[in-house]
Amino acid sequence: MKNLKEFFQKITQSPKILVLVGIFLFFFIIVLIILFSGKPTEKDATSITPTPTPVVGIITMEEPVPTPTLKIVWTTQDLNVPETMDIFSIKNPLINQKTGDLLAQKLGFESSNEQESISENLRIWSKGSASIILNFEDNLLQYSAGTLPQLAVQNVTDDTYFVTARNYSQNVFGIGTAQGLINHSVTYLDEHDAPISSDKAVVIRVSFYQSVNVLPVATISQSGAVFTLYLDKKLSLLSMSVKNAYSELSSLGKFKTTPLVDLISNSDSMALRINASSNQDISSEMVSSKTITFNQASAQTAYLSKENQLIPVYLLSGTVRAGIVQNQPGLYILPIILPQ
User: 192-213: b or e for each residue (b if 16 or more CB lie within 10 Å)?
Assistant: First the structure.
């Protein structure tokens, strides 16, 4: 104990030794800081995002909203399909970096209207109340004119709405794309986007499929269509949405098809709904129901566009009911090509 006391007295009485001790403590603290700051925390370790695997062949699809147990009431029992069909990869999406400026220009925006964006895959323009969003990662265009719908007394036919909406599409994307569109539906909506009779409608939704080899190309959207335009009764364009459209495809090869009759017994668990009700109250009622009944009325061979692929499907049209909800438009798909 006496020796230890003499040692500390010697240190305190020697400035040279004090400096050396101070330097040693300084570097010791620095080393501790480096060791602890460099150690990854549990939160950091779990937040690492793995590199995604490229999509090839058949893809897994999810419904836009949770779905209760499905029961399909069939009227179509079979459909003629080729023994093999192509699966396509989207080589050039319709919404891409190279055409972004041109699309914005054709919708009335200038370069000075572009807003700052946090991602190179997202570009936004705005002018007054009008805006356009281009999401290149999701192959999505969303345009809004920012104007209120104008009412008109005259009656306009569905054909007129189709022609007008197709002309708007041609003005933006060109005649080749417009000629490849297939009429999907004209839906009359009130001010809350709920379906209503044509004479009381405030907004008209006009939807188109794209096409490949004369077959319709659908996608998961509000209507199940790739092109969706909203017009008012004076035929003014209110908004436009284009999702999962293509400008160039490449084939991944031909694959063996499965007859529709072989799928019907398991169709309740295999079918995927690709449209949704525009009315939120109806959507909530359907989700909370235990069973959805789909009364299938028609079937056709088609393609589903999702995750940069076009996959052959049986496209089923009809009406759905669940709980107090009756006769809502339903659009379901079944895969034509099954994993071997």
Answer: ebebbeeeebbbbbbbbbbbbe
DSSP state letters, 104-158: HHHTT--GGGEEP-S-TTEEEEEETTEEEEEETTTTEEEEE---PPPP-SS---H
What is the end-to-end Cα distance of the chain in Å, rounded? Answer: 84
3-class DSSP state for residue 270?
helix
Distance CA 73, CA 337 (A): 22
Q: Bigger pLDDT: 330 or 277?
A: 330
Task: Tell me if the domain spanning 92-248 has CATH number 3.30.310.160.
Answer: yes
Q: Would the pTM of this model clear 0.85, i.e. be above it? A: no
> What are the E-state strand segments in 137-290?
140-144, 182-189, 203-212, 215-218, 227-231, 237-243, 246-256, 272-273
Residue pair 204/212 in contact (Cβ under 8 Å)? The answer is no
Q: Worst-scoring range by mean pLDDT, 10-19, 227-236, 258-267, 330-339?
A: 10-19
The pLDDT of residue 41:
41
Locate the domains of the chain by residue range: 69-87+251-335, 92-248
Distance between CA atoms of 221 and 111, rounded to whole angstroms?
A: 30
